[in-house]
From TrEMBL, chain A:
<comment type="pathway">
    <text>Carbohydrate degradation; 2-deoxy-D-ribose 1-phosphate degradation; D-glyceraldehyde 3-phosphate and acetaldehyde from 2-deoxy-alpha-D-ribose 1-phosphate: step 2/2.</text>
</comment>
<dbReference type="InterPro" id="IPR002915">
    <property type="entry name" value="DeoC/FbaB/LacD_aldolase"/>
</dbReference>
<dbReference type="Pfam" id="PF01791">
    <property type="entry name" value="DeoC"/>
</dbReference>
<comment type="similarity">
    <text>Belongs to the DeoC/FbaB aldolase family. DeoC type 2 subfamily.</text>
</comment>
<protein>
    <recommendedName>
        <fullName>Deoxyribose-phosphate aldolase</fullName>
        <ecNumber>4.1.2.4</ecNumber>
    </recommendedName>
</protein>
<keyword id="KW-0704">Schiff base</keyword>
<dbReference type="InterPro" id="IPR011343">
    <property type="entry name" value="DeoC"/>
</dbReference>
<dbReference type="GO" id="GO:0004139">
    <property type="term" value="F:deoxyribose-phosphate aldolase activity"/>
</dbReference>
<dbReference type="InterPro" id="IPR013785">
    <property type="entry name" value="Aldolase_TIM"/>
</dbReference>
TrEMBL record, chain B:
<protein>
    <submittedName>
        <fullName>Aldehyde dehydrogenase family protein</fullName>
    </submittedName>
</protein>
<feature type="region of interest" description="Disordered">
    <location>
        <begin position="485"/>
        <end position="512"/>
    </location>
</feature>
<dbReference type="InterPro" id="IPR016162">
    <property type="entry name" value="Ald_DH_N"/>
</dbReference>
<dbReference type="InterPro" id="IPR029510">
    <property type="entry name" value="Ald_DH_CS_GLU"/>
</dbReference>
<feature type="domain" description="Aldehyde dehydrogenase">
    <location>
        <begin position="30"/>
        <end position="476"/>
    </location>
</feature>
<keyword id="KW-0560">Oxidoreductase</keyword>
<feature type="active site">
    <location>
        <position position="257"/>
    </location>
</feature>
<feature type="compositionally biased region" description="Basic residues">
    <location>
        <begin position="499"/>
        <end position="512"/>
    </location>
</feature>
<dbReference type="InterPro" id="IPR015590">
    <property type="entry name" value="Aldehyde_DH_dom"/>
</dbReference>
Length: 337, 512
């Protein structure tokens, strides 16, 4: 079965068409609980199998550049300052000053109040609605806990969008999800998506963070992924990076399988962002392999795939330097922020 | 630059230190055979790897005599804990030489290095470790207070898991106190010879394990030899039947692990993505050269199209080619003869009216290759639903109710294994008992563990390997005494063979 839907249809209406009848809490629950289960042993075995793919030099060079090009360079600390954000932006533009062939990253990801500094520092390199250049992503909706009233979450979102954020990374209400109030989560995502709309009618891309470490089971991750996509997520994202475990390969595989199934059902391409805990190039390459063998290589673009990471880029840069010079230079040959 | 086109990552064969010619391994030494020699080739390239000796009946006689000597003088007198030490040592040496063994196995058999590296060789070590632990605990195997070894075991193993089947046979036999003469399959003798080197490294007493190579007649000379007490065979049902006839009426104990046509049953509530992986692993693991392969897929009718659709998409990502490449999923068919059999049976399927779909794999110019193939619209009456193909060919049937699934699954002359995929635990538990198969996998397939017994129903053979049951196949329960008269009259001695003799350590029944 393929669901066809006109471009620009509102998520809620699309969900109604897909689920049939009224979009009630019950209909939503029946749909989500009716998804086939996830066998944890089998899922982890498949992820482990994908980890054994061997990448040789020529593929590796391409993989390393792809990791950088699809990275959301991130700083999400209480101690963030405008100065730190400017440094981050400089690194996002020129990750490795010693090698001008190094690509820029996809986006910088900061707290909402830091968006103006990021936009200013990017200047002409800011993507500003287009796909060329570097995007500014802002975490919003009472990140990372999501524990605030909807009014505050929406204000948080609007403020970041007004300040120039191109992408909003929202967190779902895990409390509502775990207590089975799927409708509450759905409505909040729909509302935040509305809040992403700019005065000119365009809208900031919405990444929905499931915080899979708090959802605990793979079945929950699968339901939450469907729920977020039904409600209109442009991307689904594993984690805030503030909860352990953050991104894992099995969870990412599972979410990619949902994205693949959604694409088969509707023809629509949803993006994926594993975030938190991915530090080594070797691990990141395993994620790329998983994408390639699950949804296909066409997903390996900044429009559909992102790594949420802060320290990953440095390891990739060291690996790139090693490929260029033949030796491993050490952490003092890349910038700390 | 396409990423899925992973750069070739071949494991180098330079780690191997192969000889150009291999003889037999008898009484702790490599010796020349008295028969002709034959070449063992790489199924992926058809290049000659080495030449292998063909053991004559006389050679087999010498090997059995060595095993008898080692049994009488050394192995049967040794304490269980000392036997265990040798087995532990063998297990550790297998681990130490694991990369070399994996490369040799891939080269000689054609199976992908990721399987030999991640499955075969680790399991070989696990089997020796497991039975090493049993060697000094035989009285706890459930066979009474003082179970006894049988004597000399004649073992014949197949080409699909050369090293693993060798471990399945040798480890329990030695742990139980038997000595062994084993014959590897003609096309895959290489790793057995590397294993012989390991036995020398381990200082295993001479004659405890003897390896004779050669084709069918060599195996026949071995299993019909008058001085063996136990015959263990893994291979085709036809050969198993012949061996059963030859052994019938003798004192020899016999275990047979034969063919299979396993049902892999997928219900509509199955964990779908994992079930797809399980189907792939069930039939395309080791190119389908698996006696317990899930070659009959039984899908609940309402999810048939979805399962097939997803399966085809998944199969399109499988990579076929150089078995030594670490990224290869599907390797070469082991021999030209086997390839021909797969082709013939597949053509039969098409002629019978089943719908054939083949993954779009590039077939290399040289070697023996068969791309993963699915037959849909298969009827239970079709030959491809009944006969063991032993290749990467899946036959798909449908069912509507659990009862129909069980009926169809059991409707086979075989009964080695089966699989069920459902998220509903109560249904799983209710159905597994009704399946007439030695192993039933729940939400997984083709998983092996030394502690888990493995064996068949009906034409899949009898006896169990693995676990305590596997040990029992090499032990005599205490209290049983072999009447010497029966033993002596058991079988017609072959030329040059000694008359059958009773096991050296028989005793009178223990009085209760």
């Amino acid at each position: 079965m393929t669901i066809t839907h006109p471009v620009g249809i509102a998520p809620a209406e699309r969900a109604v068409r897909l689920l049939g009848g009224d979009l009630t809490e019950t209909a939503l629950r029946l749909h989500l609980d009716g998804l086939t289960g996830v066998d944890a042993v089998g899922l982890e075995q498949r992820a482990a199998g994908l980890s054994t793919r061997s990448i040789k030099t020529s593929s590796k060079a391409w993989a390393l550049d792809t990791i950088i090009r699809t990275c959301d360079l991130t700083t999400l600390e209480g101690a963030d300052t405008p100065g730190k954000v400017r440094s981050l932006v400089a690194k996002a533009i020129t990750p490795d000053a010693s090698d001008p062939t190094t690509p820029s990253v996809a986006a910088v990801c900061v707290y909402g109040d830091m968006v103006p500094y990021a936009v200013e520092a990017l200047g002409s390199r800011h993507a500003a609605g287009g796909t060329e250049g570097i995007q500014v992503a802002a975490v919003a909706t009472a990140f990372p806990s999501g524990r605030a009233s909807l009014a505050i979450k929406l204000a948080d979102t609007r403020e970041a969008v007004a300040a120039g954020a191109d992408e909003i990374d929202m967190v779902i209400d895990r409390g509502a999800f775990l207590s089975g109030q799927y409708g509450v989560v759905f409505d909040q995502i729909v509302a935040v998506r509305e809040a992403c709309i700019r005065p000119d009618g365009s809208h900031a891309h919405l990444k929905v963070i499931l915080e899979t470490g708090e959802l605990q089971t793979y079945d929950n991750v699968k339901r939450a992924s469907w729920l977020a996509i039904l409600a209109g997520a442009d991307f689904i994202k594993t984690s805030t990076g503030k909860v352990s475990p953050a991104a894992t390969l099995p969870v990412t595989l599972l979410m990619l399988e949902v994205i693949r199934d959604w694409h088969r059902l509707t023809g629509e391409k949803i993006g994926m962002k594993p975030a938190g805990g991915i530090r080594a190039s070797k691990d990141a390459v395993r994620y790329l392999v998983t994408v390639a063998e699950t949804v296909g290589e066409e997903w390996l673009t900044p429009q559909l795939w992102r790594f949420g990471a802060s320290s990953l880029v440095n390891d990739v840069l060291l690996q790139r330097q090693k490929m260029r010079t033949g030796h491993y230079s050490g952490p003092d040959y890349v910038t700390v922020d | 630059m396409a990423f899925l086109e992973y750069a070739a990552a071949p494991e180098s064969a330079s780690i191997l230190n192969l000889k150009a010619q291999y003889g037999l391994f008898i009484d702790g030494e490599f010796v020349d055979g008295h028969g002709d020699v034959f070449d063992t080739i790489s199924p992926a390239t058809e290049e000659v790897i080495a030449s292998i000796a063909q053991a004559t009946a006389g050679d087999v006689d010498v090997a059995v005599a060595a095993a008898r000597r080692a049994y009488d003088r050394v192995w049967s007198r040794m304490s269980g804990s000392d036997r265990g030490k040798y087995l532990f040592r063998i297990a550790r040496l297998v681990q130490e030489r694991s990369r070399e063994l994996a490369v040799a196995e891939s080269l000689d058999n054609g199976k992908p290095i990721r399987e030999t590296r991640d499955v075969d060789v680790p399991l070989v070590a696990a089997w020796f470790f497991y039975y090493a632990g049993w060697a000094d605990k035989l009285e706890h195997a459930g066979l009474g207070p003082n179970p006894r070894a049988l004597g000399v075991a004649a073992q014949v193993i197949p080409w699909n898991f050369p090293l693993l089947m060798l471990a399945w046979k040798i480890a329990p036999a030695l742990a139980a106190g038997n000595t062994v003469v084993i014959k590897p399959a003609e096309t895959t003798s290489l790793t057995a010879m590397l294993f012989a080197e390991i036995l020398q490294q381990a200082d295993l007493p001479a004659g405890v394990v003897n390896i004779v190579t050669g084709p069918g007649p060599t195996g026949q000379a071995l299993v019909t030899h008058a001085d063996v007490n136990k015959v263990a065979f893994t291979g085709s049902t036809n050969v198993g039947r012949m061996i059963a006839r030859q052994v019938a009426g003798t004192q020899k104990r016999l275990t047979l692990e034969l063919g299979g046509k396993a049902a892999n049953i997928v219900f509509d509530d199955a964990p779908m993505d994992q079930a797809i992986e399980g189907i792939v692993n069930g039939i395309f693991f080791n190119q389908g050269h698996v006696c317990c392969a899930g070659s009959r897929l039984l899908v609940q009718e309402n999810v048939h199209d979805e399962v097939i659709d997803r399966l085809k998409q998944r199969l399109s990502t499988l990579r076929m080619g150089d078995p030594l490449d670490k990224n290869t999923d599907i390797g070469a068919i082991n021999s030209a003869a086997q390839l021909e059999r797969i082709r013939t049976l597949s053509d039969t399927g098409e002629n019978e009216g089943a719908e054939r779909w083949t993954a779009d794999c590039r077939i290399p110019d040289k070697g023996f290759w068969f791309a993963p193939t699915i037959f849909t619209k298969v009827s239970a009456a079709h030959a491809i639903a009944r006969e063991e193909i032993f290749g990467p060919v899946l036959s798909v049937l449908t069912f509507r109710t659990p009862a129909e699934a069980i009926t169809k699954a059991n409707n086979t002359p075989y009964g080695l294994s089966a699989g069920i995929w459902t998220e509903k635990g109560s249904r799983m538990l209710a159905l597994v008992d009704q399946l007439r198969a030695g192993v039933v996998w729940a939400n997984t397939f083709n998983r092996f563990d030394p502690a888990s017994p493995f064996g068949g129903y009906k034409e899949s053979g009898y006896g169990r390997e693995g676990g305590r049951h596997g040990l029992a196949a090499y032990l005599e329960a205490s209290g049983w005494d072999a009447p010497a008269s029966l033993s002596a009259a058991s079988s017609a001695p072959t030329d040059g063979a000694r008359a059958a003799r009773k096991p050296a350590k028989t005793r009178k029944a223990v009085a209760k």
